[in-house]
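Quick one:
INPUT:
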């Protein structure tokens, strides 16, 4: 990692972007499993690491959601029983399917509670956690006219803009 840190300032912009998007964003953030590796991030890469991992990481956030929302608790428990760990994009694909199934069953209150919480927490998430929401939840929401399409209407403006860009 020392070599990457020493070479980082002189990299061409496209290579720096690759390092930022692939390497730095892939490192665990504070409070996430394996976060001790952050101690080895050197001074040249540290500002990008801090910017990328500012805010709540996915694992602490999903744990908080599971603590606060019984619906998320059961989804997270089932997910960990199946995979043995938290896989963010798979978990949020499960959350999306669950939200759509609740809308189809007419259980709007349960679905809206989770969407409202995602709305309120989104701005305080780090980029890795926001990315998990963007990649799965926003891209997998049903399109207009499909069962569950009302979910998109419940998204706060920043999430709606992210969805339109997806």
């Amino acid at each position: 990692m020392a070599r990457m840190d020493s070479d980082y300032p002189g990299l061409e912009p496209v290579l720096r972007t690759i390092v930022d998007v692939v390497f730095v964003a892939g490192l665990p953030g504070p409070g996430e499993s394996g976060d001790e590796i952050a101690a080895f991030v050197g001074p040249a890469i540290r500002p990008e690491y801090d910017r990328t991992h500012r805010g709540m990481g996915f694992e602490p956030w999903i744990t908080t959601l599971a603590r606060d929302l019984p619906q998320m608790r059961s989804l997270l428990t089932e997910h960990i029983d199946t995979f043995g760990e938290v896989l963010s994009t798979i978990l949020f694909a499960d959350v999306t399917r669950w939200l759509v199934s609740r809308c189809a069953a007419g259980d709007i209150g349960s679905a809206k509670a989770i969407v409202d919480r995602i709305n309120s927490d989104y701005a305080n998430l780090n980029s890795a956690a926001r990315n998990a929401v963007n990649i799965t939840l926003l891209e997998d929401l049903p399109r207009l006219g499909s069962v569950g399409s009302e979910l998109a209407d419940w998204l706060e403006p920043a999430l709606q803009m992210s969805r339109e860009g997806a």
